[in-house]
Amino acid sequence: MASAETGGDKYRSFMHGEGEKNTVWRHGAPPNYDVVNKLFEEERTKEWPEGSLEEKVQRLLKTWEMEMIHKVRPDDQKSVHSQGFTASTNGMKPLTRKEWTAIGGYNAFLATKLPPEHRIYDPDEETVDSGMSTFLTAFPRGFAIEVLDVYSGPPRVAFKFRHWGYMEGPFKGHPPHGQRVEFFGVCIFHVDEEMKVEKAEYFYERGNFLASFLSAPAAAAATSASGCPVMRGN
C-alpha cells in the first residue's frame, strides 16, 4: 500500500499523482477529506506509528472505502485485487466489485433482510447518489473511521474498527440532535502479497447504529458522563 502522495491525502492512497491521471471520479475530481480528517485527528482514540501494521491496515481501510465510493470504474480501484474480489456485510451475499460500485458503499454496507416497513433506511430504495447525500447531510463534518486493534496480519487481516460522526443535519425526515452517532465492528480483509484486498467481510450491529438517528441518545440526554452515544433499539 502506497504512502501518502505529495499534495495528497495524509491517510489515503491512490488519490493523486501520475497513477490517477486517467481515473474516472464520480464527481469529476478526487474527494476532499480535510473536514473529516480534522474530526478524525481530534477524536481518534489510537494514533498508530507510521509503518506499523495497524497504520497500514487503517490506510488500506480508508483507501478501500474511498475507492469504492468515489471511483466509478472498478479497474481504477487499486486497493483491491483485480480478479475475484468480493465484499460482504454480516454474512449476507458477497458482492463483486462491479456490484458494490453500482449500488454504492452506503447501500451495500446497510444491506438488510428486514421487511421494508421496518427499515429506518432502505438501501433497496436508494441510489448511489441519494445514499451518499443522505449521510453527507446528516454528518456535515463527515463520518470518521479508525482502526482500534489488529488481531492478525496478512494474509487474513482481522481488525476492530470504530466509525463515528455528529448528526448535525436531518436524516430521512428526522431532525438533527447534534450528538455523536457511532458504531464498532470487526472486519476481515483477505489480502494478497501486495496487500490488495481479495475479500472483505464486515460484521457490526446495524440496528443500533440506525436507531441512533431517531432521537438524541439516552445517555447523552441524561448525562455526558458515560460518553456512550448508541441508543439500544431495532
From TrEMBL:
Protein name as it appears in the record: Pathogen-related protein
Classification via InterPro entries: NTF2-like_dom_sf, Pathogen-related_defense
